[in-house]
TrEMBL record:
<keyword id="KW-0808">Transferase</keyword>
<dbReference type="InterPro" id="IPR020590">
    <property type="entry name" value="Guanylate_kinase_CS"/>
</dbReference>
<keyword id="KW-0547">Nucleotide-binding</keyword>
<dbReference type="Pfam" id="PF00625">
    <property type="entry name" value="Guanylate_kin"/>
</dbReference>
<keyword id="KW-0067">ATP-binding</keyword>
<keyword id="KW-0418">Kinase</keyword>
<feature type="domain" description="Guanylate kinase-like">
    <location>
        <begin position="6"/>
        <end position="185"/>
    </location>
</feature>
<dbReference type="InterPro" id="IPR027417">
    <property type="entry name" value="P-loop_NTPase"/>
</dbReference>
<comment type="similarity">
    <text>Belongs to the guanylate kinase family.</text>
</comment>
<dbReference type="GO" id="GO:0005524">
    <property type="term" value="F:ATP binding"/>
</dbReference>
<dbReference type="GO" id="GO:0004385">
    <property type="term" value="F:GMP kinase activity"/>
</dbReference>
<dbReference type="InterPro" id="IPR008145">
    <property type="entry name" value="GK/Ca_channel_bsu"/>
</dbReference>
<dbReference type="InterPro" id="IPR008144">
    <property type="entry name" value="Guanylate_kin-like_dom"/>
</dbReference>
<dbReference type="GO" id="GO:0005829">
    <property type="term" value="C:cytosol"/>
</dbReference>
<protein>
    <recommendedName>
        <fullName>guanylate kinase</fullName>
        <ecNumber>2.7.4.8</ecNumber>
    </recommendedName>
</protein>
<dbReference type="InterPro" id="IPR017665">
    <property type="entry name" value="Guanylate_kinase"/>
</dbReference>
Length: 185
């Protein structure tokens, strides 16, 4: 995919690190500047999640077929569900002249790195796996098994973040100290 316009932003970090919350703040503060690449997922919607806004909720069958038709720039299996970024989702943001923001996992990042999108990469590092666990428990969206799967994935993602991202800090994090997370640019 040849990319024109402002460089996309790829945000990555373990489930529960606070990516979604930080992005909500970003979009609320700069609605004309940044646009969200709405991923497809086969996981069930959580209370409050809106189809087409937070995710395009779909089935494994429909998504596998769409991937085979070449409709996705990347896809990944995370905690027994498929997630993916469609070409249409990215085009929708770019056509509005906004910075396209992708919230994707480590596998998605590795795939995007093989494309010619040339994005900026940001990793949200949680304070510890213990803190992640208590956040995910409090959120109440996971079963014992899916919580364990997310924590196993988190350990791998933290290692990946430590290896491949340089320590940095950007200003809009300062308005969100409650999340106790660091941004790596
Ligand atoms: N298109 C995609 N490709 C790869 N990974 C994706 C994609 N869309 C979402 N993900 C990742 O899948 C993981 C699980 O997302 P999900 O929304 O189920 O959990 P979450 O705990 O709410 O994530 P968050 O950390 O954003 O709060 C997250 O790390 C998210 O970044």
């Amino acid at each position: 995919m040849v990319h024109h316009g402002p460089r996309p932003l790829v945000i990555c970090g373990p489930s529960g690190s606070g990516k979604s919350t930080l992005l909500q703040r970003l979009f609320a503060e700069f609605p004309h500047k940044f646009g969200f690449s709405v991923s497809h997922t086969t996981r069930s919607p959580r209370p409050g999640e809106v189809d087409g806004k937070h995710y395009h909720f779909t089935t494994k069958e429909a998504m596998t077929e769409a991937i085979a038709r070449g409709e996705f720039i990347e896809s990944a299996e995370f905690s027994q569900n498929i997630y993916g970024t469609s070409k249409a989702a990215v085009h929708a943001v770019l056509s509005e002249g906004k910075v396209c923001v992708l919230d994707i996992d480590m596998q998605g990042v590795k795939k995007v790195k093989q494309l010619d999108m040339n994005p900026l990469y940001i990793f949200i590092m949680p304070p510890s796996v213990e803190e992640l666990e208590s956040r995910l428990r409090e959120r109440g969206t996971e079963t014992a098994e899916s919580l364990q799967r997310r924590l196993d994935a988190a350990r791998e993602e933290i290692e990946y973040g430590e290896c491949y991202y340089k320590v940095g800090c950007i200003n809009w994090l300062c308005i969100c100290p409650l999340h106790h997370c660091f941004l790596f640019l």
